[in-house]
Amino acid sequence: MLLTITTTYQPATDLGYLLHKNPARVQIFELAFGQAYVFYPEASAEICTVALLLEINPIQLIRGRHSALALEQYVNDRPYVASSLLSVAIAHVFGTALNGHSAARPELVKQVLSLQVSLPVLPCRGGLPLLKQLFEPLGYTVEATPLELDETYPEWGYSPYWSVTLSGEMRLHELLTHLYVLVPVLDDDKHYWIGDDEVEKLLRHGQGWLEQHPAREQIVYRYLKHKASLTQDAIQRLNAKDNPKADTEQVEHDAEEILQVEEPINLHTKRLDAVVAVLREHHARRVLDLGCGEGKLLKLLMQHSEFTEIVGLDVAYRALEIARRRLNLEYLPTRQKGRITLLHGSLGYRDKRLLGYDAAALVEVIEHLDPARLAAFEKTVFEFARPALVVITTPNVEYNVRFKTLPAGRLRHKDHRFEWSRAEFQHWSHELAMRFGYQVQFQSIGPEDPEVGAPSQMGIFSRS
Question: Which element (helix H / strand E) includes 143?
């Protein structure tokens, strides 16, 4: 079983300080199931690669177990494939780095590095779609090749094993936590008994990224070996840490934005009505509401019979639960229920479920995205999903001076990462349209002020 990590950050040999492993020598570590070897196939100022090689002893691995499947205990894939055994080795051998510590070079811990991971034999019971679903939202580029059952007999087809390379820009301890959690998830198995302490491990190593991962329920379910009680406990605790786009905290944020700032001009209703009008004008029938939140636009779309298929997608699972209740989905007639679908997912990665729709609406969504994530969103919507019509609304920051209850210099919503002027939004929109083959028109929403414009702005992207 082999794992390699390569960096081109310079000096690349700083990787040794982060891992607390000297590039000049081979180190051997005793594990309960065999031995781990750490060595550096390449170590220079320009490029450095560390290798973690596990030599599994099948006798040690099964010692103390009792099973009727005696042969399977001795004849299996565990010595050769990345699995929970690798996670244990990472925690044992690279434990200090995994926890984000470096006594010799503490400043390196926060350094974002260019990293590449190679896993020559990785079980993936879900194939390439699952690999991308798990790693792409975390910022990785995924390259994977399926391994044949037998190279001599290609007609036998492919095995469930993949040769995988992951590349990305991140801190080393972040990469190690991703591998620690996600390798057993891909294998969908663990070599040891799962108890309450596994929930604690998952939450500890998933802190800061698992809460917002679009596949977090699937990750939890597989990591905890499908144990319902443990899975429920972990998900409830993750929900408690969820971001402002979830449940009551989202409701509070929406109330703050709408009631305290925008309600005097009834702006939110005007936005929704304007979006619906554009969708109807362009004769859209199959519509995506991306970043649907609590489902207010979805409910409005359901009132118009020409929208035959309506899909709401949001990164916050609990926000979708609120939308489900708002739409009264459980009690809708069968025909009406068949018109609407709620999807849990992120705009940061490609999703085949978004293909083939006439239109996509993003109502006050883009300003909730970190500027660094906008590029991923642009490709997801305009390059991959590529609906014929995209309608985007966003606040006009120039109008903020007209809101009497909004302190000077403050954005309208706690979760807004930015708010654009009319010129900024139009520049971004024109560049986006040109890059992906769309035309764009603009429309003001709300009362027009001669000096600062309207409070909200809408870009209508269409392609022939």
Answer: strand 141-148
Q: Report which residue type is found at 28.
A: I
pLDDT at 238: 79
The answer to whether the beta carbons of residues 111 and 141 sit under 8 Å apart is no
d(CA 384, CA 287): 16
pLDDT tens column, 149-193: 777 777 777 788 899 999 999 999 999 999 999 999 988 766 566
Q: Which residues pair with 426 in a beta bridge?
A: none
Q: What is the pTM of this model?
A: 0.53
Q: Backbone dihedral region of 357: left (phi > 0), alpha (psi from -120 to 50 degrees) or beta?
A: beta
How far is residue 62 CA from its own chain's centroid? Answer: 36
CA distance between the termini of the chain: 52
422 backbone φψ class: left, alpha, beta (φ>0; ψ -120 to 50): alpha
pLDDT given for residue 241 in this prediction: 55
| Whole-angstrom distance, CA of residue 145 vs CA of residue 148 | 10
CA distance readout (Å), 47 to 16, 66, 100: 12, 47, 22
Measured on CA atoms in the order 304, 309, 315, 318, is the torsion positive or negative? positive
Nearest to 261 by CA among 437, 85, 412, 120: 412
Of the candidates 100, 109, 120, 110, the one whose C-alpha atom is nearest the C-alpha of residue 52 is 120
* Structure-token pair, residue 340: 């609407």
C-alpha–C-alpha distance, residues 149 and 155, integer Å: 9
Q: How many helices (H) and strands (E) does the chain have?
A: 17, 14
Q: Alpha carbon 123 to chain centroid distance?
A: 21
Nearest to 306 by CA among 282, 270, 330, 331: 282
Contact in structure between 231 and 194 (CB atoms under 8 Å):
no
Neighbours of 132 (CB within 10 A): 18
pLDDT tens digits along 244-275: 343 444 444 444 454 455 555 578 889 999 99
Q: Which of 98, 111, 126 has its CA nearest to residue 14?
A: 111
Q: Which two tokens stand for residue 70?
A: 């005696």
- Are 219 and 187 in contact, with CB atoms under 8 Å apart? no
The pairing of beta strand 27-31 with beta strand 34-43 = antiparallel
Between 432 and 199, the more confident residue is: 432
Asked if residues 429 and 249 have their Cβ atoms less than 8 Å apart, the reply is no
DSSP 337-404: HTTEEEEE--TTS--GGGTT-SEEEEES-GGGS-GGGHHHHHIIIIIII--SEEEEEEEBGGGGGG-T
* Tokens of residue 272, six digits: 């929704």
